[in-house]
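Justification of computing resources. Each target in the renewal requires a structure prediction run like the one illustrated here; the chain below, 100 residues long, is used simply to show the kind of job we budget for.
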Amino acid sequence: MQHPAIPTIDWGEALDGPAFTAEEFAHACGVAPDWLQARVEAGVLHVDTGSGAWRFDSVTLLRARRVLQLEATYGADPQLAALTTDLIEEVVRLRRNLAG
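Resulting C-alpha cells:
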C-alpha cells in the first residue's frame, strides 16, 4: 500500500532541538496518529514518556521518515523497514567514524 503524501527524505543528520508531541510528529511525517502508535507499540520507533506524554526527538523523526519511505516504496512490513533502517543508520555511523 502506497502512502499518498510520502515526505522527501534528506538523508543528512538530524538536528538537536525541542521534542515533538505525538501530533506534531505525525504531522511532520505526514502520517495519521494511528500509524505512529502502531510503530511505537511494535518497537519500531522509540518514544520518551518521561513527562507522561509521548515526546519524540529529531533523530526519531528521521528514523520514522526512513521507515515510512521503505514501507511505501518497497511494501516492506514495519519490522523489515525497521531492520533496514537500523542497517542504514549503522552504515552512516561507520562512515562518520572512518571520516573523523
